Amino acid sequence: MGGMPEFASITALDALLADVRVGKERRRQLAMVRGEMERALARGGLPVGARRSLRRLLEKEALGTYLRLAESGALRARQLAGGYPPTSPATNEARLQCLQLVRKAYGMPPLRLGNGGRTPLRPTPDYGTLAALRRELDQNLATAMSPGLTRLTALLALVLDAAPRAGELTALRLHHLAPGGQAVYVERRPQRGAVETDSAWYPLSPVGRAALERWLAVRARLVERAHGTSRLWVSLFVNHAGLPDADGNAVLRPPGMPLEEKGLISSYRTGRARYGLTSLLPPKMEQLRRAVLDQAPPVPLAAAPATLPPSGQRAPAPHRPVPAARQGPQ
C-alpha cells in the first residue's frame, strides 16, 4: 500500500512490526494480517477506538470481530475465482499465530479467541527445547549410530538450520549441497499456490555439516544397491512399490530408492519414538519447523557459495571411520 496509513493504530502497528525479527514467510503472513486489519478499519467493521489505539486494536473485542470478517473472506485483498470465499483452515491458523505474536511483541498476554470452527495450532517447542535438541544431535554424532538414527539426525539438523517444509526436504538433491556441506539450497514450495521468493542458500551449522557428512556415507552404500539417484534422502530397507505387477505380485524396491514425502514424514514420526526423542521433538515435523521460524529464523546467504559443483555431480566428501553401530530395531 502506498502513502501513510489512514489510522494511527496501523501506523503504530507498522512501527511494531518493523522491530519484530521473523523469517520471510512469517513476515508475509504478518503483512497479510496488517492489510486485513486496515481494510476492516476502513470499512468501519471494528470498534472506533481501534482506529486510534494499537492496544484497542489488539484487544479481544476488536480481534474477535476482525477474525470473523477475515475468515469469511470479506477482507481479501483481491477476488479469488470471481468472488471472496472463506479463507482456508491453514490460513486461519497462520492468522491466529500472527495475532499472538503481535500481542506478545506489544507486551500483551496470550489471548483465547475461541475456536470459531478452527483447528487450534499444535504447540511448538520452546527455545530451551530447541537448544537441548541441538545438544542431543551433537552428542549423537560423537557415537556410533544406526542408519536410521544417522538419517534422522541429518534431517533434524537441516530443519534446525534452514526450516524447510517436508516437501522441500524431499526435493533436495546432492547438487543442493555446497562443497564441504557448508550450505544447502532450499527451493521453497509454498502451500495454497502462494508466490514465495526466498528460495536461497542457507548456511549449515557445524552440527548440520557433520550430520550430513555421516548420512552421505551411509547413503552412498545404500544407493549402490539400487539404480542410483541424486536425491538426498533414500530408503533404508526393501519395500514395495504400492502397485502389484501383471501377475498380482508385490513389486519390491531395494534399499537406496528415493524417499518420498510420505516416507520422510513417517521416518520422523517413527524415529521420534524409536530413538527416545519424544521429550525433544513434537509429534509433527511442521511444529518443529514453526518453532525454528519463530525463535531463530534462518538467514540466507547473500550470495551462492563459491565453486559450486555441476548440477547433480556432487560426490560425498571423505568420511572419517566411526565405530560399528549397535544393532537395534529400524
UniProtKB/TrEMBL annotation:
Q: Which residues form a coiled coil?
A: none
- Lineage of this protein's species? Bacteria, Bacillati, Actinomycetota, Actinomycetes, Kitasatosporales
| Keywords from the named record | DNA recombination
Q: What is this protein called?
A: Uncharacterized protein
Spell out the residue ranges making up region: Disordered: 301-330
The Gene Ontology terms for molecular function here are: DNA binding
Q: Which GO terms describe its biological process?
A: DNA integration; DNA recombination
